[in-house]
């Protein structure tokens, strides 16, 4: 299944903020560039208007004094007032020829604009564009006053106005992104606590609760999380209590059935064996041909009694409370070794003290081991079964490994495994059944001591 790539939330939000800031910075820079271009053209237009007006006054003065020696057009008087670096003043006659032109030199800028900026600015704003105003005297157009600015000077002025801002924004953008990332990392720090809480909930630690958070959104998540944890803890506690009662009722039914079998079938089989023995004595005197039939009845009754003893042992195991869990499990393993006659080798190892376990916990552990051994020997066809029961400071761990058929359906989904799951759930524990590392099956049961302590309190009450 294809999975989409996952990105860190802080990085994703920081990139989005950076994109918004970059767009804002670009808009601000564009605004300054457009403003600078308009100001340059407005200045050129105003100077062109001044030059045109001055030339009109010159021509009017010439006509008024009727001076035949006319030096029109004369740009010297007006150039003394309006000339700036890189500015050019010119008069274009009616034929389109430039009759007079004055240009001031353009100084070399101390910090020339980058070539990339100059090319960009030239492609967008056409620096050095002429500004022309007609010179009209008594309704007659004598020519045009033309004003232009050296493109290099105008580009340098634009760079002076907006370029430094662009550099400042380019420096500020990474700094702002770093500050945004740090702020997001601080604001999203509680998400690690939420993730840890979910992982603990997934590990069946339903006592997990989240602390209050400053952010309203995270506080809402915290309230839902804690309510869910409390509801789940209550539901599992009720389920565990119901399962415990059902298991207790099942065990009671087994004990009742064992008593009925022992009292009814046991006595009947004992009577059959006694009658077979009596009939054999009679047949030995009166009818020797019936001896084999009497022996067959006695053997059948004896076999049925052995089967009945095994059934009674499974229905009503030895009193774990009196013998203790260790002795009961050792007797169970010894019984399986005796019945298998070497076909399956069972071994068990203990690590820790189990004398203080309550009777209910010991009985459930005994039943779990009993069902596991039955599955391994009868359904999985194992030849080697190793059991290890360990008591740690905070839990009890049971490990059962065998070399049988791990894919046997009865071993995985039979009633025995279902019964084990019910008993483990009643103790608020965890059960896993999977293929072993070197073949066979591996059963793992972990029971938290908190559940054991709860059983002790229930038992004391």
TrEMBL record:
Q: Enzyme group, top EC level?
A: transferase
Q: Which keywords fit this entry according to its UniProt record?
A: Kinase, Membrane, Phosphoprotein, Transferase, Transmembrane, Transmembrane helix, Two-component regulatory system
Q: Which domain of life is it from?
A: Bacteria
Q: What is its main location?
A: membrane
HAMP domain location: 185-237
Q: What is its EC number?
A: 2.7.13.3
Pfam families, per this entry?
Answer: HAMP (PF00672), HATPase_c (PF02518), HisKA_3 (PF07730)
What's its catalytic activity?
ATP + protein L-histidine = ADP + protein N-phospho-L-histidine
Supply the InterPro entries for this chain.
Answer: HAMP_dom (IPR003660), HATPase_C_sf (IPR036890), HATPase_dom (IPR003594), His_kinase_dom (IPR005467), Sensor_HK_TwoCompSys (IPR050482), Sig_transdc_His_kin_sub3_dim/P (IPR011712)
Q: Which GO terms describe its cellular component?
A: membrane
Q: Where in the cell is it found?
A: Membrane
Name-wise, this protein is histidine kinase
Query: What is the native source organism of this protein?
Result: Bradyrhizobium sacchari
Return the PROSITE patterns for the record.
HAMP, HIS_KIN
Name one molecular function that GO assigns to this entry.
phosphorelay sensor kinase activity
TM regions (residue ranges): 13-34, 165-184
List residues of the Histidine kinase domain.
365-451
* Lineage, highest ranks first: Bacteria, Pseudomonadati, Pseudomonadota, Alphaproteobacteria, Hyphomicrobiales
